[in-house]
Design a protein that fits this description.
Length: about 290
């Protein structure tokens, strides 16, 4: 309780130089100007003559998976109504290499958009995908500090619902992703669940309140026809849940919000149009860890 009480500002007497300490200018933790710059012009050029390979819809309050070969494009679209999606990405050949939302956040910020990369977990830490188009790119940062496509949330899950509300709810994104991954790789649910990870919150509008620092959500600005498009840097298995929160204007972990499907489409470009591109190698750290 002492620790929680200490979180409230004003619980401790300020030192005399409190204002001076607060006035220190922040520095960016990870200046990202040394990151390799993705060749968006090459990707977008290749996209122009790409042919559709496959598509699948994630039904409302459910998830679906699709394979996205390296060098192909994955478009996630809003259809029928405003809807948020929770995305997991895996190396299609090795589920232990998966999307790392925390490091993606550290490198690119709280929300991602065109030109940002989606990075994989340790020890591979490499770009899994590059965002080449984002029709919600106009939104920017609103007056509440909210923006779109966050890597600050986790994924809605039944365990938190149990803690906060004492309910058993089975169609949170965590469970939807678990079922879809189990089906995609013919795994028992308990094993599939271990691979489910913190997501890219596609189309979700979120931020942190300025006064209490709490995670907030608000109605997504997404409308049918909007999309986020990724270029697959490695062979990917993409799993997407149509969140039970719908547009996340009020609540999740229940069946009360209006929910809509989400569409995933895969496009394959002509090989000649990707000349000069190669799939990124795994991270170059030697993994000796000082021994
Ligand atoms: Zn969700």
């Amino acid at each position: 309780m002492q620790i929680n009480a200490g979180k409230k500002t004003g619980a401790m007497t300020e030192p005399q130089d409190a204002q001076a300490r607060r006035a220190i200018q922040p520095v960016i933790c990870y200046p990202n100007d040394t990151l390799p710059v993705p060749d968006l012009a090459l990707y977008r050029g290749a996209r122009m003559n790409a042919e559709k390979l496959d598509e699948i819809r994630a039904a409302p309050r459910d998830a679906a998976s699709i394979e996205v070969p390296a060098g192909c494009f994955l478009r996630i679209s809003s259809v029928e109504g405003s809807q948020v999606g929770d995305l997991n990405l895996f190396n299609s050949h090795d589920l232990s290499e998966r999307f790392y939302s925390g490091k993606t956040r550290a490198l690119h910020g709280t929300h991602v958009t065109t030109g940002d990369r989606l990075w994989s977990s340790f020890p591979t830490l490499r770009p899994m995908a590059t965002i080449i188009e984002d029709t919600l790119n106009w939104y920017g940062m609103d007056e509440f500090g909210g923006s779109v496509h966050d890597v600050i949330g986790t994924r809605c899950d039944p365990y938190t619902g149990q803690v906060l509300q004492g309910v058993q709810y089975h169609h949170c994104c965590h469970s939807n992703l678990t079922r879809a991954l189990a089906d995609a790789r013919n795994l028992p649910l308990a094993e599939a669940e271990r691979h489910v990870h913190d997501v890219l919150n596609v189309f979700m509008c979120t931020g942190f309140t300025r006064d209490t620092g709490q995670y907030f959500m608000k109605a997504s600005p997404v409308r049918p026809g909007d999309y986020l498009e990724l270029f697959a840097e490695i062979d990917l298995l993409a799993v997407l849940s149509a969140c039970p929160g719908g547009d996340c204007s009020s609540e999740h972990t229940s069946d009360t919000a209006a929910c809509h499907p989400l569409l995933m489409e895969v496009f394959r470009p002509k090989a000649a149009d990707l000349e000069g591109w190669s799939s990124p190698p795994v991270n170059g750290y030697d993994r000796s860890h000082g021994r």
